[in-house]
Amino acid sequence: MFEPIDQGNVYRQEYIDSLEGALEALRDRAEAERTAYFRQHFPDNAGPIREKLRQKLGWPLNGEKRKIKSVRQEFVQKREGISVYRLQMELIFGIRFYGMLFALKDGARRPLIVAQHGGLGTPEVVGGLLESGTDNYHHLVERLNCLGANVFAPQMLIWDPKRFRARDIDAQGDVNEMRRPLDTMLQQVGSSLSAIELHALFCALDHLGDEPFVQPGRIGMLGLSYGGFYAMYASALDERIRACLTSCSFNERGRGRRVATDYVWGDSGKYFLDAEVALLTYPRFLRIQVARHDQILPFAGAEREYRRFEEMARALTHDDSWYLFDPFEGRHEFCPDDECLRWLIDHC
Q1: At 153, which helix (H) or strand (E)?
Q2: Which of 37, 60, 198, 227 has its CA 20 to 30 A from that of 238?
Q3: Which of the 8 DSSP states describes residue 329?
Q4: What is the Cα–Cα distance from 88 to 239, expressed in whole angstroms?
Q5: Distance CA 329, CA 294 (A)
């Protein structure tokens, strides 16, 4: 005897509900473990905590020695005292990492700022090299150059595949369809795109730190959206980065929204969400910039995660002078006010 197709739906719904309930319980348990772990080890043993983060992200951060096989530098143009170059480095297993350098040519050593684009972006966009403009970056690189900093803008695998076709297949989907399958397969073999791109960024700092136009010891990094993720993680792991400005990125992860694969390696939720990664920038400088009207990452989520970070930072470092929460009136964009850029340059 046949039954209606929806006869078992109530059981299926109860199954889904029970799984979501279990997930919430596991998140609560993970939060307790994170809190206990940082209270026990931070800040006195920050080195081993960074090593744990490297291990979670995977190869090549988890022990592979950095080595640059070759560097190709191509002159692009000169504009108002700025020389623009394309920079490509060949790294381990033939990985070819790419970025653009915007260097002041006045003979003086200047700070180096890494300006990381976000999702759908490229160095050409953030650097103002396209007729279409700089999108939601508001002439970021030009403003940094005008304030007296050299700028390196790396390319991460988050460009718009429809607008910037590297392969025909890229144009078939969006940035997530381009990035996530490769990231998932890399995680299967103990790596991740985040680990590879952070490793590549650190190799770029190895190379650029020796350039005669870079002031030794003065490196800062900023990023918008996905770039803010890279800015904060890079600053947490590499103590050469003296100041970090993460914009429209810092937020709750997992509570009420889908989590990108970049945040789910291993059992990372037991150790590192945004607040914990932010703590690892101590005792250097961190500015958490969030837009009050962000249409992608809700301001309320950023505010809740910041309150959690602030409580831990005050309790564990007994110092509130190294971090700054910076809400601004805007949407998912880099703040057009130069004050935050001056802060970054002054503190790196």
Answers
A1: strand 150-154
A2: 37
A3: S
A4: 24
A5: 9
Q: What is each CA distance from 320 to 41, 150, 235, 308, 344, in whole angstroms?
A: 19, 29, 18, 14, 17
DSSP-derived 3-state class of residue 219: strand
> Crossing angle, helix 46-57 and helix 193-208, to 10 degrees?
120
Whole-angstrom distance, CA of residue 115 vs CA of residue 180:
23
Q: CA 319 to CA 284: how far, in whole Å?
A: 12
Identify the DSSP state of 80. Answer: T
DSSP string, 233-275: HHHHH-TTEEEEEEES----SSSSSPPPGGG-STTGGGT-SHH
The string of pLDDT tens digits covering residues 306-320 is: 999 999 999 999 999
Residue among 341, 288, 276 at smallest CA distance from 41: 276
CATH number of 48-347: 3.40.50.1820
Query: Which residue ranges make up each domain of the chain?
Result: 48-347
Q: Tens of pLDDT along 83-128?
A: 999 999 999 999 999 999 999 988 899 999 999 999 999 999 999 9
Phi, psi of 236 (to 5 degrees): -65, -35
Distance between terminal CA atoms of the chain?
Answer: 75
199-298-182-101 Cα dihedral, nearest 10 degrees: -40
